Amino acid sequence: MTASPTVPVPSGTLAAEVDSALRDLRLAERSQQLDQSPEFPRAQFRALGERRLLGLRTAAEFGGRGLPLREVAATLHQLAYGSGTTFAKLSLQPEFCGVLAAHGSERLRADFFRPLVDGRLLIGNQVTEPGAGSDAGALALRATRVGDEYVLEGTKSEAAFAADADAAIVYAKVGEREVSVFLVPQTLEGIHRTVGSPDLGERWMRRGTVEYSAVRVPAGNRIGPEGRAFDFLKEELTRERLLLAAIYLGVGRSSFDEVVAHVGVREAFGKPLRAQQAVAFPLVEDWAQLDATWLYVEHALARLEKGEDVVAQAALAKRMATGVALATIDHAIQFHGGRGYSSALPHEQRWRDVRSGGIAHGPSEVMLRVAASRLWPRPGPSAEG
Ligand SMILES: Cc1cc2nc3c(=O)[nH]c(=O)nc-3n(C[C@H](O)[C@H](O)[C@H](O)COP(=O)(O)OP(=O)(O)OC[C@H]3O[C@@H](n4cnc5c(N)ncnc54)[C@H](O)[C@@H]3O)c2cc1C
């Protein structure tokens, strides 16, 4: 990695453990294969669980390491630096299911969360619907209480692991505006799952649609009190967005280091490319942006650990990190010339994978909306984080 004081490195032996996982499990190579032949990488997911690289922040009683957030971010950055978004995002999977860890019953946590942290069970998140994406307040999938069960009716769309998840955390309307969360095994009767058209990047997620037709879910599978879903979602999205920012910066940094090395030796017009200001100056700007955005992320994580409200900073961090990483990777493609544009080099896949950061977990424009709502607060509940 670049000798820069702002490059995050996990402390203790963790950095060495991540390096050995990258090497032994050949994660960079596997990530490239998954781009060509998309499938959920069960074997590597399990192996990450065995190495305790899932649930980095999860409490030890659930098999996690219970690390502070800044340490988690540094670890994800290192994973992303070494292998792109795929396995860093998989490492975050228990974090994406934070509502289950924080608000699920003891039974739900033992039956679902613990196996997730071990890498034996995949749990998806289903919020988005055909008529409700950025505007999660417009959800239509309904859960109706009937005795000891809820009956789910409606459609979820755009969901990662649509056909591969063993269970899903499903957000459903229970009242006029109130939304509850349910842990739904995906094998229940009445569930129909379809994988959609292949994505631009991160194809291993095999996103698609899940239809619920009179699906009966035990009332005990509700996560937390009735109607509190948006409060949970807000907490979860704040952490997720900051940690996703760490991942995107890690991917951007890998392309940065590679292009810096390349322009130092590649010659054109009788001198190294680095001697052209048109090549050097954009890379110097990328350097500053990568460092500055990392410091912003770290600062927000430190404030979050102290219990401060960093909803706006998390939204802005994800937006900035996505933009910085995309710009940096784009320069890597450009300054590697013809090979940069081809799949012989990793940059084009990295660009396609990171591009999802402008849409997933809240589109970049909505991140500005979220931040604006902190500058000019409005009373009442909000679905936007
Ligand atoms: C890789 C990936 C993985 C995903 N995984 C999941 C998953 O596991 N579970 C899940 O539930 N969903 C998932 N999603 C879906 C994602 O959360 C939604 O696509 C996202 O919230 C946007 O919703 P939408 O697609 O309905 O777009 P829309 O809401 O239709 O918005 C379209 C575009 O309009 C613009 N826009 C929207 N609102 C505003 C506004 N107020 N101001 C300015 N511009 C605006 C934005 O550019 C936005 O991208 C995933 C998406 C991707 C790309």
Q: Could you characterize what this model shows?
A:
With 385 residues, the chain is of the alpha+beta class. It has three domains: 14-117, Acyl-CoA dehydrogenase/oxidase, N-terminal domain (Butyryl-Coa Dehydrogenase, subunit A, domain 1, Orthogonal Bundle); 123-226, Beta Barrel (Butyryl-CoA Dehydrogenase, subunit A, domain 2); 230-375, Butyryl-CoA Dehydrogenase, subunit A, domain 3 (Up-down Bundle). 49% of the residues lie in helices and 15% in strands. The protein has 14 helices and ten strands. The strands form three sheets. It has a four-stranded mixed β-sheet with strand order 1-4-5-8. It has a four-stranded antiparallel β-sheet with strand order 2-3-7-6, with no helix packed on it. The radius of gyration is 21 Å and the shape is globular. It starts with 13 loop residues before the first helix and ends in a 10-residue tail after the last helix. Flavin-adenine dinucleotide is lined by residues 124-128, 133-134, 158-160, 202, 205, 207, 356, 359-360, 362-363, 365-366, 369.
Give a brief description.
With 385 residues, the protein is of the alpha+beta class. It is 49% helix and 15% strand.
Keywords:
Butyryl-Coa Dehydrogenase, subunit A, domain 1, Butyryl-CoA Dehydrogenase, subunit A, domain 3, Butyryl-CoA Dehydrogenase, subunit A, domain 2, 385 residues, 10 strands, four-stranded mixed sheet, binds flavin-adenine dinucleotide, 3 domains, alpha+beta, globular
